[in-house]
Structure formats: C-alpha cells, structure tokens
Amino acid sequence: MKKIGEVNAKSLEFHFYRGDFEKWVAEVLEDKELAEEIKNLKNLKPVEDSLRDQLYLIVSKRFEKLKVQ
Predict the structure, then answer these.
(1) pTM for this one?
(2) What does the alpha-carbon distance between residue 53 and residue 69 come to, in Å, rounded to a whole number?
(3) Do residues 1 and 57 make contact, with C-beta atoms less than 8 angstroms apart?
(4) DSSP summary character for residue 69
(5) 51/56 Cα distance (integer angstroms)
(6) Do the beta carbons of residue 52 and residue 5 sit within 8 Å?
(7) CB 33, CB 66: distance < 8 Å
(8) Count of alpha carbons within 13 Å of 32, Cβ hemisphere only?
(9) Coil/strand/helix, residue 31
(10) Quick check: helix, strand or coil at residue 8?
C-alpha cells in the first residue's frame, strides 16, 4: 500500500491498464478477489491521482478485511 503513494502516476497508469497489477495479485499473491476488484476499476477509467486514490482504497479495504479474518 505504501508504494502506491510513492510510484510515479504515469507508471501506475501504464502497469494498471496493461493488467499487470491484477495479474500479479492473482498469480503471485493468489488473491482472486482483490485482482477482480482491481480489474473492475478499469471501468471507471481513472488516471493520475484518481487512479492512485482508487487503487489505494481498494487495496487498503482488502487489507483490513483480511486482517480481521
């Protein structure tokens, strides 16, 4: 989550729209639910700070949910 706030916005966009994040989350972290939420975010077509904020929100909510379990 920390890195989402640190990475260049254009780099986030590049990897987000290529599907790199959802693929990494699904295959490496094996979290299909989070991968699907990231994939669904594409429908909103966020860019720059909006993408950063939305991505952070999705990841932090998932983190909190998993922390409770």
Answers:
(1) 0.90
(2) 25
(3) no
(4) -
(5) 8
(6) yes
(7) no
(8) 0
(9) coil
(10) coil
Q: What is the DSSP letter of 30?
A: -
Dist CA 11 CA 63 (whole Å):
23
Question: pLDDT of 26-64, one tens digit each?
Answer: 999 999 999 999 999 999 999 999 999 999 999 999 999
Contact (CB, 8 A) for 56 and 5: yes
Name the residue type at position 55: L
DSSP state of 52: H
Between the CA of residue 69 and those of 25, 39, 66, what are the distances in Å?
Answer: 19, 24, 5
Half-sphere exposure of 36 (CA within 13 A, CB side): 3
What confidence category does residue 69 fall into, taking pLDDT thresholds of 50, 70 and 90? Answer: confident
